[in-house]
Hints:
Blueprint: H1 10-19, E1 38-43, E2 48-51, E3 56-63, E4 65-70, E5 73-78, E6 81-85, E7 91-94, E8 101-107, H2 116-135, E9 139-141, H3 144-159, H4 164-186, H5 191-207, H6 214-221, H7 225-236, H8 240-258, H9 263-269, H10 275-286, H11 290-298
Antiparallel strand pairs: 1-8, 2-7, 3-6, 3-8, 4-5, 4-7, 6-9
Helix pairs in contact: 2-4, 3-4, 5-7, 8-11
Amino acid sequence: MEKQIYDIVFDKTNEMQTKMNEPFCLMKAEFDLKNRDFVIWKRNYRYQNTHAHDYYQLWYILKGSCKHKIDNRKFPLGSGDIIFIPPFSYHSMSDGSDDLIVIGVDFTEKFFSATESDKTLMLHCVTPICVRQSKEQSVFFADNNIENILLEMLGEFELRSPFYDTIIKSDLSKLLVLLGRKNCNAATGNSKHERAVNEIQKYIHSKFNEKIAIEDLCKEVNMSETLLTTCFKNTTGKTIIEYINCLRIDKAKQLLAETDMRITDISYELGFNDGAYFNRVFKKTVGTSPNEYRKQKQKPQ
């Protein structure tokens, strides 16, 4: 779909054009925001030209990598990274990998202006992130909780079941609160530990199907085992082992539903060297055995 250009206030555009030395346009959303106050989308990009828009935007890198530029600051994004783009921030994307998948959330200020609670959320969560974004790079690493929220929002938006917008607003509110907390931690004395946990999460995401030793994680961030495990649990709500197993089980669910791989092969593929242990962890996490899960997901509709 060809992108259209907004009717814009020229002094604002000229102000932004003066700050830039490259072509610029104020863009509409990937979908029309005239008739709604939010859209959720999933796309594969290789690049995006420099542009801006008058709505808020979240990018979550579900898979792959790219480079993003916001207000003349460049930084890499990889799987698990989430970035908040305020209105009227000119930005572009380049070097998108072939497997890049982005989940995006576009929403207007009107979406959070109906109640006092909405206004409080904007004041205490969204505004501080925007202020920090104007001074430095605001890239957060999303844990499983945040990724699951985004996937639920995407599913609701695609299905459009009754009251889907209510669920999306509830999910987006929770997402913004979680990002607000991360932003607050990064702005306080907890930032060093927060960054260490983020680094460990990235490391785990890249090697979750391999053998991961706590000692190796400690060396990655130069922290003691006691301090690292405490900070990790306080930040993510899970122990390191629980976090690794959650990633593995999420991938196992996908393989069980979408492939005919043997369950034993799946367990070894994902780093479980004991099939019985894989079955126990899967049942404890999902509530059913791998075999029963596959039957439920692959039964004829």
